[in-house]
Amino acid sequence: MIERPEARYGRQRLAGSSRRRLIAVLFVVIVAAGVALALVAYQRLGTGEVKGDLGGYRLVGADGVEVTISVTREDPSRPVVCIVRARSVDGAEVGRREILVPPSTAETVQVSAMVKATRAPVVGDVYGCGTDVPGYLRAP
Fold first, then answer.
1. Most CB contacts within 10 A, which of 28, 51, 84, 132?
2. Contacts of 137 (CB under 8 A, 6+ apart)
3. pLDDT one-digit tens code per residue, 71-98
4. Which of 44, 66, 47 is closest to 115 using CA atoms?
5. 62 lies in the same domain as 107
6. Is 4 inside a domain boundary?
7. Digit-coded pLDDT (tens) for 108-139
8. CA 84, CA 46: separation in Å to the nearest integer?
9. 3-state secondary structure 2-63
10. SS3 for 137?
11. Does 60 share its domain with 129?
12. Residues 69/110, Cβ–Cβ less than 8 Å
């Protein structure tokens, strides 16, 4: 490669093979970052110790919805918490409630809870469930 004066000809560009090598390295880095992100997301959001599925909902008046969920857990002897919510016609969350699901002998149990809404709800759903039960939900 011939060195040209930068002041007269400007900065030299990378040779074709150097440019291709740089693109290949960037591609590998981006793919590796994507795989790492996917693994972290799967670990945090993938199948966990507890799963809540919507069983049904019933609108109660203009400001409430009764939500029924099926809760399946690996260890039924542990209490879990589930979050149910009310949603309006535009999809906005207009009410939310945490439910304590006490220990049980069955792996899957059904629980219902009333959710008060700030606007007229059209649907009830389950946001998610987890094993980290807050202290204010536990029995004294």
1. 84
2. 81, 98, 100
3. 999 889 999 999 999 999 999 999 999 9
4. 66
5. yes
6. no
7. 999 999 999 999 999 999 999 998 888 888 76
8. 19
9. CCCCHHHHCCCCCCHHHHHHHHHHHHHHHHHHHHHHHHHHHHHHCCCCEEEEEEEEEECCCC
10. helix
11. yes
12. yes
54 with 72: CB under 8 angstroms? no
> Mean pLDDT across the chain, nearest whole number?
87
pTM: 0.65
Domain count of the fold of the chain? 2
CATH number (domain holding residue 130): 2.60.40
Residues in the chain: 140
Give residue 36's identity as a one-letter amino acid code: A
Report the pLDDT value the prediction gives residue 13, as an integer from 0 to 100. Answer: 65
